Amino acid sequence: MKGPGWLLGSLMVLVGVAILAAVVYSFLSLTRPGQNGVGIIRAMLALVLVGGLVILAGASFTMGDTQTRNLLIGGVVASASGAVAFYFASRSAQDARRDLLNAALGTETVPKLVDLTVSQAQAAMSSGSLVLKLPEPVPAAEAKVATQSIAAGTSVPRGSVITVTV
Asked: Is domain 107-165 given the CATH code 3.20.190.10 in the classification?
């Protein structure tokens, strides 16, 4: 074995096998009954990104420049962590981000105002920091709310304005 050429070849084969395995797994999961089907795009992007950098890092071993080699190895580590984060981003991760933002920035859940009277809607909104915007001219207290600008149950930043129609 002369030089690190065997390493570069091995890395290329390894990346190719990983991409092939991802494609086969994705197609098999699409044909399984009761499965929603796993998308192939996220897996392919992650594999191509990390695989390309692994090949570049392997190729850097053929160079005598240790600074370039260290830079490419660092790129592999950074990109691998980014690809893993991207690959595992999902709906539950979106929920976790929303919970984190709620805790950090402070949000409130919009109450259901539709079918309440104007006075009931005002009472419901007075318990929090959300602002109720009524149509002009201000309707009678017993008038019913027909629509609200932000759906009930939605998390919004504190102080958000909820516009209603009567």
From this structure: no
